[in-house]
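Troubleshooting log. The previous structure file for this entry was overwritten by mistake, so regenerating from the original sequence record. Sequence copied from the archived sheet and checked twice against the printout by T.R.
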Amino acid sequence: QVQLVESGGGLVQPGGSLRLSCQASVNIHSSYTMGWYRQAPGKERGLVARIRSGRDPDYADSVMGRFTVSRDNAKATVYLQMNSLKPEDTAVYYCHTRVDGIDYWGRGTLVTVSS
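Regenerated output below.
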């Protein structure tokens, strides 16, 4: 059983930055993907970014060049650095991993981009 706990969400003005963190309850081997999804009101949940050893990170087109996903395997933590935030980035951000064919999700952290 893997538990994922997100933190770092909040209210930020357009153009600002936030850093999300996701702490796993157990060490996730670097070969397993960890990543971030988001769900805005009235929309489906979609991939933001994911990272796995031996591969370049994947990013949604809408965040390319603004968001950076990184990982500290020793701390069982994945991060999402979000820069140049836009109102359309407003959503609940969920941490995700898949271990041995089982999907695990965090409860989510709300990011609101508004002036």
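The chain has a mean pLDDT of 95. Archived copy saved in two places this time.
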